[in-house]
Amino acid sequence: MKKSAKRALVTVTAIGAVLAVGLATTTVVNAVATGRESDRIESYGRSVTVDGRQMNVVVTGSGPVDVVLLPGFGTSSPALDFEPLVTDLAQDHRVVVVEPFGYGLSDGTDRARTTENIVAEVHAALQELDVDRYVLMGHSIAGIYGLELATRYPDEVAAFVGIDTSVPGQPNMDTTFPTGLMAAAKNLGLVRVLAAVGGDGLDGSVYSDHAREQMTMFTHRNSMRPTYLDEMAHIGPNFERALGTTFPADLPLLLFVEADNAANPDWLALHERQAASVEDGTVVPVPGDHYLHHTHAPEIADGFRQWEAARDLTTG
Q1: Which end of the chain is less crowded, N or C, counting CB atoms within 10 A of the terminal residue's CB?
Q2: What is the pLDDT at residue 180?
Q3: 164: left (phi over 0), alpha (psi -120 to 50) or beta
Q4: How many CB atoms lie within 10 A of CB 8?
């Protein structure tokens, strides 16, 4: 028994030593790689001052209607992520991509990532750009932030266009995330390892190799940082606060929605109910996954054009 216990202790010690060396290696590799990548990340857009910090925005194209794009949660670089859609829409619209704090090239912040704070900051950025009447278009959690923005500033938002947007009352949004463990995983370099194994999840036919490389570096830079993790921690409370809320009844609503969401069979019905809560609501089912703007940018842009042609959304 004593020999068996000794062997077990030696084995555990050896495994612990291997893990310690492995973690030390991934930590050093991550730190070195992050330092090198910071010099290779390319700048774009312009900065506006919000709450004493710099928020990055990208303005492209011109036209009688301004379109403001808001990203889904954790998007590493909203400007690059939306690029296929922006390129199309900017042919006849002025398109403004806002990168909230913690996203893309924007600064981080220590202000709580409540819906109220995020919306106030986005609005302040738009005010700095003199954008005061616009079609609000967003992906994923932008559906929750967009609700707040449209309700708080009804004279500014001419319409809301959702790209598989979040809806108040959708299931499984009360999850408590282990943000402390996730921060540790980031510092230990494990997030980088997992990203390398899992790939970037981008459609190679839509994004160039250069764009994919840039987005990967932005992911390593921005994911699991304090601002990111604070927003993640507020997802549950932000969804709870949104329960029972609807868009203003007179706000035109266009929702592009994943047609067949296997994880949530009621996904389309949730959006149909949201559209029915306003006087002018339209739902367009799209065959694809959650990131519809990655694979269906031309269809979204054309669908939006056809829809807006029947309405007076002129913002200029």
Answers
A1: N
A2: 65
A3: left
A4: 10
C-alpha–C-alpha distance, residues 134 and 90, integer Å:
14
Rounded Cα distance between 248 and 277, Å, is 9
**224-271, pLDDT tens digit by residue?**
899 999 999 999 999 999 999 999 999 999 999 999 998 899 999 999
Task: Give the amino acid at 217.
Answer: M
Both structure tokens of 11: 């084995």
Q: Within 10 Å of residue 31's Cβ, how many Cβ atoms?
A: 12
Asked if residue 136 lies in contact with residue 146, where contact means CB atoms within 8 angstroms, the answer is: yes
By C-alpha distance, which of 232, 80, 217 is closest to 141? Answer: 232
Is residue 42 exposed (0-12), middle (13-18) or buried (19+ Cβ within 10 Å)? exposed
Q: How many residues does the chain have?
A: 316
pLDDT reported for residue 19: 44
d(CA 136, CA 1): 71
Average pLDDT over residues 57-68: 97
Residue pLDDT, tens place only, 94-128: 999 999 999 999 999 999 999 999 999 999 999 99
Structure tokens that stand for 64 in this block: 């009688």
In this structure, what token pair is assigned to residue 282?
Answer: 């339209």
Q: Find, among 149, 157, 128, 167, the residue nearest to 255 by Cα.
A: 167
Q: At what angle do helices 2-40 and 209-222 cross, to 10 degrees?
A: 120
Q: Report how far residue 146's alpha carbon sits from residue 250's, in angstroms, rounded to the nearest whole number.
A: 15
